[in-house]
Amino acid sequence: MNDAAVALAYKHCERITRSRARNFYYGIRLLPPSKRAAMCALYAMARRIDDIGDDASGGKQGGSETSAQALASVRTSLGLLTKAAAGGPAPPPGDPVLMALADVARRYPLPINALEELVQGCEWDLSGKRYATFDELVEYCRRVAGTIGRLSLAIFGSQGGERAEALADALGVALQLTNILRDLVEDRDVYGRVYLPECDLARFGIGPGLKGDDEDLVALVCYETGRAAEWYERGLPLLELLDRRSRACTAAMAGIYRHLLDQIRTSPASVLRGRLSLAPSQKVAVTARALLRGAP
Predict the structure, then answer these.
(1) Which pTM value belongs to this model?
(2) Spatial contact of 169 and 150, defined as CB atoms under 8 Å apart
């Protein structure tokens, strides 16, 4: 594989990450250059998969491909990655994201099957799948975010073995639950998606389409923030198993999302009015604290 072409491919992935990863990039910046580049390549592929689901569900068809064709193309890419990771030929030129990620797969022990799980999670989004129980929702969160935790761990490196993988998975679940609460109204009104468990909706007197009195919806949000907080407690011990720079990166990303969850817990009604976010100054403060102390 041409070194200059690979370098350009990594720069392409970094541009995607800088422009699209509003929270993710704050942590990535704390990594040494090689791991930072690898994480940008990973994010670019994850973003590609996620965009397939959002474009189709939002009524915007991306290019001339249908969503099914686009996912089939991604699966073909994953097959090429598997071969490249085993020392096989590099993917054909023309796709800088795939080119960069193939180089990552040669350098780090990426679990390519985790990307396949991410594709399956996208398929669940496209099908409009609903979740009857919280356990079913957790399985979804594992597919779309726990996978990213495990893939990231392969780049970070750890002496924790299976325990570290389980903790990375749990932290991914915590982040995804926070995302779901943050995007509650947008997911419902724009994408027609309801992620919160049907048994919880019924418990708080809310219809299956997430329609109900604001007072009941606020009570539901409060209840789910408590569950998300429990998953942070499960996943954050991962920090102890990482080197300093990887710990700072993870602490920054988790810290931003945990602060967002705290904001939702403080004002649960705010998620009914639109999507919440932290101010840039708040994100910088969390990132600086993570770099200095390695904690959210």
Answers:
(1) 0.90
(2) yes
